[in-house]
Amino acid sequence: MPAEASAQEARAVVVAEKPSVGRDIARVLGCTDRGEGCLIGRGYVVTWAVGHLVTLQEPDEMNPELKKWRFDTLPILPEDIPLKVIPQTKDQFKIVRDLINAPQTQRVICATDAGREGELIFRYIYIMSKCRKPVERLWINSMTDEAIREGFSSIRPGADYDGLYRSARCRSEADWLVGMNASRAFTLRYNALLSVGRVQTPTLALLVRRRLEIEQFKPEKYAVLTADFGDYKGIWFSPQRNPDSRLRDRAEAEALAAKVKGRPARVVKAETSRKETPPPQLYDLTSLQRDANSILGFTADKTLKLAQSLYETHKALTYPRTDSRHLPPDMIPKVVSTLKKLPQAYQGFVPGALPEGKLPVSPRTVDASKVTDHHALIPTDKSVNPEKFSPDERALYDLVARRLLAAFHPSYVYDATTVVTAAEGETFRTRGRVTLREGWKAIPPSEKPPAARAKKKSADEEEETSLPPLRERDTRTVKSCAVREDATKPPAQHNDASLLSAMENAGRDADDKEIAQQMKGSGIGTPATRAAIIERLIQVGYAQRKGKQLLATDKGVKLIQVMPQELASPETTGRWELALDKIARGEQDPARFMEGIHRLSAFLVDWAKEKGPDVAFPAEEYRGKGKRASAGRKTLKGCACPLCGKGAIEESPQAFSCALRNCPMTLWKDCVTRAGGPLLDEKLIRLLLEKRQLRGSTGLLSLTEDSIRFDPADPGAAPIRRSLKYEKAKR
To answer: Is residue 10 located within the same domain as residue 97?
Structure first.
């Protein structure tokens, strides 16, 4: 049924970000009639984007003279960067444009994801459609039917989110200006294809700094002496040393052991203090990604995708792309309902979180002043069956459910005891702990996968053990001594968890205390973008995964060597994120922010051209529009080019291409990911060349003589087709 004919009685057009979300909204609104790219009924037309339908133009689309990369055309600093419709999804854009501009449309409801990027997706469509209809905003924290109905009952004017749009547009244009100018300038200066970004480059700097710290680290040996007093043990220490329990070498430790062995000892200190550990806070996206990496071995990107699936598909979690770890007071009844509706496996822990049927509230969990665009990530109050989830979804849901329970349990209370025992003038320390109330620790942690291994402890790492009753002046005898040698260790390589933490906390240890204070709550990137930044560094060859570790590559190290501090510094991008947040709140002028971005872009071009240090990158040749030749590439044996049929296929970190210089075949690895397709790898390419069609859970991948096509399994999503002939990567 054509949309034009079906929408005659429509009063409002609802624009969702994805087809699956659009169908959920349509079901709640009672839109049951199908139109072209939309669902219709009861005074509503629900349509959708497929992610971004509109984006910023490339430089050569604004001016053909900018197609060739030359220093004399830099910096590129347009006052206004024009928009364009993305060719691959132009059909869906036309559907949305015609619906929102139809004479029958009285108002438009923005129902894209409730965040900065979702706002940008809608506003770009609205602007490119030249629409003038009144706009309202649907802002929801979960995709349950009840949440959608509540959202429509409290819908707000679109103008309330103008600040968020201004922030989003500034972010988009800043990334374009810095990335476009710096990437061109440094590529030309060093004759190597170098991707430079406002956010990815300071993130890379964190990895490079850690690699250099490890390479420059010089281990120092030490020894530790432990004395056995019969019913307890103690580790030697000296207040004059730092660290206080390390001896210089085995000889010194053996000498002390000989001095005290068999000699009488006396307790000179026995102190017990009451301590408590408060329950952990609720999750935001970054803290969930860190725990999922440490406990489950998930990458940050995988965690985000799983959380998004649990939010959109299963309606089991609230909005995942949140940076808040608190709830507003009006959520208290909802949390009580959620706890009571948790799956049966968790019900044994619910009474501890609801003593006498009431939710214990504290500023660690409920604080309206600390809730940003979205509250903390928690399960919804929808009854779900985790057995219907995939194993990975089930594991992630388990983390979030246990965290909700733990957050409302009482503190863990214990008595901590420190005993100091002296023998022949030498002192030995023993630490003990007696649990008085388990509190939140009564909730067992999520199980680690079998491959997870406990971290090896250093020789001087002290454990708290159970102790016999001890008082000052109690006497013992040193029964025996043990000497253990060890060496200082370099910092561990980053993994997703530690890099996310470093990104979140970047700049907080700055020497300038004012800057450090400003950086609180800022850092590099946002919870919604950090996973993509990490994957981007891997994709362009600046970082690599080795097991759970994230390592800077040689190319990544060289890039940071040639970068000015103004771009490589985490503090710089942290200030930008802080400024973007202020723009969203109406506390900073967007024009002032963009003036700074223009100055930075010009500075980076000047630096690359005249001030950059001489560093040799691996030689790379270029063909056509900057396409790399075969230097440094991997040849796929037995794989002939599908375009010319003669040359072999070569693989680079970004793409597959033909080894023959006169063949334009290029297949970008991420060419179909925009439509939900897979990231191409060697295995997929070999299978595609053999079978020409591959069907998976996400859709159908097809290879023809001159193009690759992906048809999503989701019937409402638009297919995507990419030519095999060289086309500039859309970054």
So the answer is: yes
Structural domains of the chain, count: 5
- Using left for φ > 0, alpha for ψ between -120 and 50, and beta otherwise, residue 6 falls in alpha
pLDDT digits (tens, 9 = 90+) for 176-221: 999 999 999 999 999 888 999 988 999 999 999 999 999 999 999 9
Q: Is 117 helix (H, G, I), strand (E, B) or coil?
A: helix
Beta bridge partners of 45: 13, 40
Least confident of 277-286, 303-312, 512-521, 614-623: 512-521
Q: Identify the domain boundary among 459, 487, 515.
A: 487
Q: The domain containing residue 709 runs over which residues?
A: 625-723
Q: Do both 435 and 516 map to the same domain?
A: no
DSSP line for 119-169: HHHHHHHHHHTT--S-EEE---S--SHHHHHHHHHT-EEGGGGHHHHHHHH
**Is residue 22 assigned to a domain?**
yes
Our CA dihedral for 619, 622, 628, 630, rounded to 10 degrees, sits at -70
At 110, which CATH number? Answer: 3.40.50.140
DSSP state letter for 33: E
Residues 321 and 342 in one domain: yes
CA distance 287 to 228: 41
69-128, pLDDT tens digit by residue? 999 999 999 999 999 999 888 999 999 999 999 999 999 999 998 888 999 999 999 999
Q: What CATH number has the domain bearing residue 398? A: 1.10.290.10
Mean per-residue pLDDT, 507-511: 61
Q: Indicate whether 536 pLDDT > 50.
A: yes
Domain for residue 731, yes or no?
A: no
- Which among 314, 481, 307 has a CA at the least distance from the CA of 403? 307
Peptide bond into 75 cis (omega under 30): yes
CB half-sphere exposure, 569, CA atoms < 13 A: 14
Question: Residue 486 pLDDT more than 80?
Answer: yes
* Catalytic (active site) residue 346: no
Percent of the chain with pLDDT over 70: 90
242 located within any domain: yes
Catalytic hit among 283, 319, 346, 542 = 319
